[in-house]
Amino acid sequence: MPKARLTPASVTEAAAALVDEVGFDNLSMGLLAERLGIKTPSLYKHVASQADLAHRIAILGMTQAGDVLRDAIQGRSGSAALAAGAQAMRTFVREHPGRYAASNAARPTGPDDPFIPASERVLASWAAMLGGYDLDPGQVIHAMRTLRSVLHGFATLEVAGGFQIDASVDESFDWLVSFIDQGLRAGAAGGSDLAS
Amino acid sequence: MPKARLTPASVTEAAAALVDEVGFDNLSMGLLAERLGIKTPSLYKHVASQADLAHRIAILGMTQAGDVLRDAIQGRSGSAALAAGAQAMRTFVREHPGRYAASNAARPTGPDDPFIPASERVLASWAAMLGGYDLDPGQVIHAMRTLRSVLHGFATLEVAGGFQIDASVDESFDWLVSFIDQGLRAGAAGGSDLAS
DNA sequence: GCCTTAAGCTAATCACGTTAGCTTTGGTGG
DNA sequence: CCACCAAAGCTAACGTGATTAGCTTAAGGC
Known about the structure:
The structure is a homodimer of 196-residue chains. Chain A is 66% helix and 0% strand. Chain A has helices at 8-22, 29-36, 50-73, 78-95, 97-105, 115-130, 137-159, 169-185. The first copy, chain A, is elongated, with a radius of gyration of 19 Å. Chain A binds a DNA duplex (30 and 30 nucleotides) through residues 1-6, 28-30, 38-42, 44-46, 49-50.
């Protein structure tokens, strides 16, 4: 058999780098093929379709996000872990907007989709981080969803250019993280009267 | 001139209803034309291009979101305004995921793009709502960004099916709103030591 | 040094957005 | 009441991008 210059993995890597540059919705088979020095149809020897390629990028991105997050939280706890984890995620999204977008757009294709464990690893890191706060067990799931929502929302809005430029986005992010930290340290939403 | 069965506005309405059903990225000129009982090229008598159509949907969506938000906050203040506004936005996104997605994807095309005032109306409502809390003036912008981030993130994740089903999403949303409310009432992130 | 098999290529197809140019139609001025 | 004309619709055609079919080639195992 001919030398395997390209593999599904290396094609996915190149595609991930590409979408980080040009944006996830600007991914095209022609552009990727050009990058790899081959013709468009040849890509189909390595990936089944553009949808397949997008899904592979999503898995790669989610896996890398998990790595980055784990490394950031490693050896820290409580406020420090939150701050480090949040910063790490924001950095990851800014450096890899394309694969992050791919990860968000992806849906598991089946029960044994590797995307599922990759996502779970991310969630597990967040859960471990929240363990450093003294939360009521029943509140952990809500805290986790709230945390994901803020970070995901902030990152998305920032990458999309949704914030005006007249005030520092970095400062806002620090403020946000601090806001969440204080809320979590306060034992979270114990006695509110807002529930409908 | 022939009776104007269709107008740019009515076509946009139909397109908005369509994307709410099939998803923003599944919008196609053919599908919309079929809905309207005309052939695809005829659409170009009313909108300039698919990009133009998407932008009109975005303006419509942002305008409607502004209306909904204003109505919800009307006559309330502080915690009640926050709760009502947040619920209203979540409901809007759930009922109109397509036009919400369009609004997020849209970028102003110029200084006199009607999308700009529509967005500003939304921001103004949030700002008015935050006025009910006793925040340091310099913190309002950060609080606003944080608020937008959580709500946007939550709505996005929910619509995308990002939450597992084994815990009530409604409950999580109430918890989230309550969490934010308490943080804002506490005077927000005054003395944290997390800033990098 | 053959022979299989994978990797790449060219040619062709399909779907969709878009443009060009023709046809119809209905409101309006005479 | 009628001719007119601009808007609204249609068919035909084009361009691009994804995908498939089938051919060609080259490298690794025997």
